[in-house]
Design brief:
Layout: H1 4-14, H2 18-21, H3 28-46, E1 68-69, E2 74-78, E3 84-88, E4 93-98, E5 101-106, E6 117-119, E7 124-126, E8 133-134, E9 140-142, E10 151-157, E11 160-169, H4 175-180, E12 183-184
Antiparallel strand pairs: 1-2, 2-11, 3-4, 4-5, 5-12, 6-7, 7-8, 8-9, 10-11
Length: 185
């Protein structure tokens, strides 16, 4: 229950008499700061599964931990036996065997870093956030992105494909490096 003074002050604040009554006015920056702080706290408490239902990458329904970490910069995978896509969320790698070549892609869309999804029936990758679409080779088809999927350097060692995680190749920065980032199988 409010006292008469508290009620009068609240009504004055509602009427816009901020300076005269000492009402606190939160500006746009303060509102955004406080809102982002609250979202960060929710993400910290929920382990990243924030209020909008976003899941951390290791909780997504993909294969995890299938690659063998060789060191901090590389991970190796068995050479895929047939054309297809393997998504390793733990290492944030998409491994694709397509038409006699193996490519390794960064799991994130190059537009705004949202985890890409493989749509088996359509034979394409799709970004769930802005609907960019990519061929199995990583080539951009359409959508908000402005370039191909980012590739990792790969090499074949015996029956393994070794993916170098320390840097990925952007097609708009290094077109020749991007085109060469594959191995024949």
């Amino acid at each position: 229950m409010r006292t008469p003074n508290e009620t009068a002050r609240a009504e004055a604040c509602d009427d816009g008499a901020h300076e005269a009554t000492g009402c606190e006015v939160v500006g746009r920056r303060g509102f955004l700061r406080d809102g982002l702080a609250a979202l960060a706290a929710v993400a910290l408490v929920t382990g990243g599964a924030g209020p909008l239902g976003a899941l951390p990458l290791d909780a997504m329904p993909w294969t995890t931990g299938i690659g063998t970490r060789r060191d901090a910069r590389t991970v190796s995978y068995p050479v895929p036996a047939a054309d297809g896509v393997t998504i390793d969320a733990t290492n944030e790698v998409i491994l694709v065997r397509w038409q006699g070549e193996v490519h390794a892609f960064n799991l994130s869309c190059p537009h705004q870093r949202t985890a890409l999804r493989w749509q088996e029936a359509a034979g394409i990758f799709r970004c769930p956030k802005h609907k960019s679409r990519y061929q199995p080779t990583g080539a951009f088809i359409d959508g908000k992105a402005t370039r191909n999927m980012d590739r990792f350097r790969v090499r074949k060692e015996g029956g393994q494909v070794v993916v170098e995680l320390d840097a990925f190749i952007k097609s708009d920065v290094d077109a020749a490096g991007w085109a060469a980032a594959s191995v024949k199988v």
